[in-house]
Amino acid sequence: MSSKWLHPDRRAVKVNFDAAFCQRLKQCSSGVVIRNNLGLVMGSGVVLYSHVADAFAAEALACLHAITFARDMGFRKVVVEGDSRTIIVKVQRDRESNLVAHTIARMGFKIGNSQCWVEEVPPDTVAVIEKDRHLTQQPDQARSIIA
């Protein structure tokens, strides 16, 4: 399995998601980033959730956030990718290849509210997305499962 972010097919977008979970507060923050086949950001967002039972529920909420956000932005051909084997076995990626979504998820606790960005990522994430774009694998080399 590659730890690089892989481009989706040129007709699709890829939505990466991750969750940060705080056991003590029973809260989680989901981070989502949607990118096109060139690796350009189409949207990103963070949602805070309360009364979350465990890390599994946090990852499930993050996956739901990812799918809903992509749908709400009007995307129909979407590759969904996260690092939770239980949530998405066939498209599982390690945290390194999902670093942008993970970074956004962690920011949720810091900013203290839910937000979304269109065609950009939060300012604290710009360096991460730029580094990720330079390490990406080109579309013809990518293996993707379309959701």
TrEMBL record:
GO terms (molecular function) for this protein are: nucleic acid binding; RNA-DNA hybrid ribonuclease activity
What SUPFAM superfamilies does this protein's entry cite?
A: Ribonuclease H-like
All copies of the RNase H type-1 domain together span 16-96
- Protein name listed in UniProt: RNase H type-1 domain-containing protein
* Species of provenance: Gossypium raimondii
